[in-house]
């Protein structure tokens, strides 16, 4: 059930008796912008740790304890051409709250405090809090360099999206941009976000729809203009392969490969794409795992993943540096085999069964259900019943998978060579 609270402010209620908790997510959406990503990342850190009436983490933690140990977070991420700042709260259901207390009402009041009363005085964030959170965020981002697998993934993304600053900048922004922000600049951006972002409020749990609507009816958002952005980022294929190599102090070298893929979330070939990825590198029975890792012993790990909102397929491998060319050649041979249908029928059927099991398991995960409902609000044609989804998956043929494989083309190669 979706209720329009204001222009571009919608309340989505997902009643279910599966869970003992109620999950509430307030999501701010805006067109992806590298500078805004940095501002929003810092703003999320500030909103997660304090507010005007909860000026420090001790006061905030005490309030969450009063809500019977509610789980609270503020995060940033992106999908395609959109950037999200999400404020989430997990609380116990009113049905199991003691003394007839309405946890939902108290939770809504808490969220109103966090959203509409940030720790801003005289037009700027509290300076001491701001400086601490800014420093902590920079340290967190710098620590990503220590996780070489994540660093390799980011480096490949930087190559693949070399023509788009917005796409190659991570969702948490850029350190140099974050360093330039001030208590006033982030307060100014907060006011802009509150007035302009598209707002979706999602509530999942054993709740009564009319009561939820009553709780959020006068939440506080005003009307806003419709977002002028296309969710899917469709980058044209380029004949030039982007390549980068660097030597870093790691024992295990990493070869990450990026492919251009002209198939997107829930278009006609989306289900074949999922099956292709499962067969290619998504599961332990995939060609990358069985051939690159097991048969030829050329990789410590080898897998693939898809980003169906940006037409981006990646292969991640951990290898000995001397095997770089052999691994790259062997990976591309596996892709070629997919185009000619060189995969057995039993593995095709096993892949479809495993994808169906994943789908069914996700329907039991409250967080996944909420995220799925949000996607449906943006991509209505993806809202399939369970039977329809399973039917589409089972209908995928060998020829469909081959057709998908032919649309996938090498676009970027990043190599991290281990060294002193």
Automatic annotation (TrEMBL):
<feature type="domain" description="Peptidase M16 C-terminal">
    <location>
        <begin position="182"/>
        <end position="355"/>
    </location>
</feature>
<protein>
    <submittedName>
        <fullName>Peptidase M16</fullName>
    </submittedName>
</protein>
<dbReference type="GO" id="GO:0046872">
    <property type="term" value="F:metal ion binding"/>
</dbReference>
<dbReference type="InterPro" id="IPR050361">
    <property type="entry name" value="MPP/UQCRC_Complex"/>
</dbReference>
<dbReference type="InterPro" id="IPR011249">
    <property type="entry name" value="Metalloenz_LuxS/M16"/>
</dbReference>
<dbReference type="Pfam" id="PF05193">
    <property type="entry name" value="Peptidase_M16_C"/>
</dbReference>
<dbReference type="InterPro" id="IPR007863">
    <property type="entry name" value="Peptidase_M16_C"/>
</dbReference>
């Amino acid at each position: 059930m979706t209720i329009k609270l204001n222009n571009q402010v919608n309340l989505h209620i997902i009643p279910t008796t599966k869970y003992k908790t109620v999950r509430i997510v307030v999501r701010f959406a805006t067109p992806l912008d590298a500078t805004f990503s940095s501002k929003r990342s810092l703003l999320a850190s500030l909103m997660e740790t304090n507010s005007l009436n909860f000026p420090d983490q001790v006061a905030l933690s005490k309030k969450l304890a009063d809500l019977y140990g509610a789980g609270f977070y503020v995060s940033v991420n992106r999908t395609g051409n959109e950037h999200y700042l999400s404020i989430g709260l997990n609380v116990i259901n009113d049905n199991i709250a003691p003394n007839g207390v309405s946890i939902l009402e108290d939770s809504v009041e808490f969220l109103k405090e966090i959203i509409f009363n940030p720790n801003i005085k005289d037009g700027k964030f509290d300076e001491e809090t701001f400086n601490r959170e800014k420093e902590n965020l920079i340290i967190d981002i710098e620590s990503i360099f220590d996780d070489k697998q994540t660093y390799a993934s980011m480096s490949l993304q930087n190559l693949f999206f070399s023509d788009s600053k917005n796409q190659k900048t991570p969702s948490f922004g850029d350190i140099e941009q974050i360093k330039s922000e001030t208590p006033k600049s982030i307060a100014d951006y907060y006011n802009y976000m509150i007035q302009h972002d598209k707002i979706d409020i999602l509530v999942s749990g054993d709740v009564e729809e009319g009561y939820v609507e009553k709780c959020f009816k006068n939440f506080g958002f005003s009307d806003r203009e419709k977002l002028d952005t296309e969710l899917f980022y469709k980058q044209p294929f380029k004949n030039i392969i982007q390549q980068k190599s660097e030597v870093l102090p790691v024992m295990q070298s990493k070869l990450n490969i990026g492919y251009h893929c002209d198939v997107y979330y829930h278009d006609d070939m989306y289900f074949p794409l999922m099956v292709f990825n499962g067969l290619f590198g998504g599961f332990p029975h995939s060609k990358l795992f069985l051939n690159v890792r097991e048969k030829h012993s050329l990789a410590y790990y080898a897998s693939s993943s898809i980003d169906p909102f940006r037409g981006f397929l990646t292969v991640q491998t951990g290898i000995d540096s001397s095997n770089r060319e052999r691994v790259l050649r062997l990976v591309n041979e596996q892709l070629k085999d997919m185009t000619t249908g060189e995969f057995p029928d039993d593995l095709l059927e096993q892949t479809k069964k495993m994808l169906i099991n994943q789908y069914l398991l996700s329907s039991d995960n409250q967080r996944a259900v909420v995220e799925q409902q949000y996607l449906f609000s943006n991509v209505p044609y993806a809202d399939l019943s369970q039977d329809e989804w399973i039917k589409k998956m089972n209908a995928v043929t060998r020829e469909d998978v081959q057709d998908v494989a032919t649309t996938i083309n090498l676009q970027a190669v990043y190599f991290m060579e281990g060294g002193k």
